[in-house]
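Morning!

This is the sequence you dropped in the shared folder:
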Amino acid sequence: MVGFYRGISYLFYPGSMAMFGLGFVHLTEPVTLRVWVLFSCGMVIFPLLALALFMKLGKVSDIFIYRRDQRHGLYALGVIFSVLSTLFIFQEGAMNAMIWSACNALVILLLFVINYIGYKASAHMAGVSGLLAWVLCLPTDELLVSLVIILAVLVYVARRGLSAHSHFELILGFCLGLFVTFAIACLLFTYHGISCSFI
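The structure's back. Tokens below.
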């Protein structure tokens, strides 16, 4: 069972959730190759390279990062990478992709703050619940929403099964991703005059 839990954690980590969200943007608005590259560098490639470097330097002992104190540097870099990605995508004029990137950047920033002040929230749950909020905002069908809900349940069970988080930390991460992403997406959609399913 541990192998299954690890597989879920590997496949559906925050970076892959971010890429799925950009894929959902592409269903409603074409995303250029340049935007895909900028987004993947900020949300996946550079963070994974930073994780590999931190592990090599002995600053992170486990790829699943159970210890809160080992998350500080990675979250700080995650904030920098995601903000830069958002700014570059904004310059490209891809509004829906920029809004999704901004949602991710703010969630990562809040995860960093929560972690820094001595608490811990599940980044995995924040990623999947942010994706859920995003598909609720975009004009997508009910099947897609249902699939993301099932995915959220799987991630919850996997992270708890690995003892990576308490129930409180998982629920905190879920609420953080869901409410922050939903609020920021609705706000920015309204500001830019873009159609949103809930506006």
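Headline: Residues 167-191 form the longest helix (25 residues).

More detail when I'm at my desk.
O.
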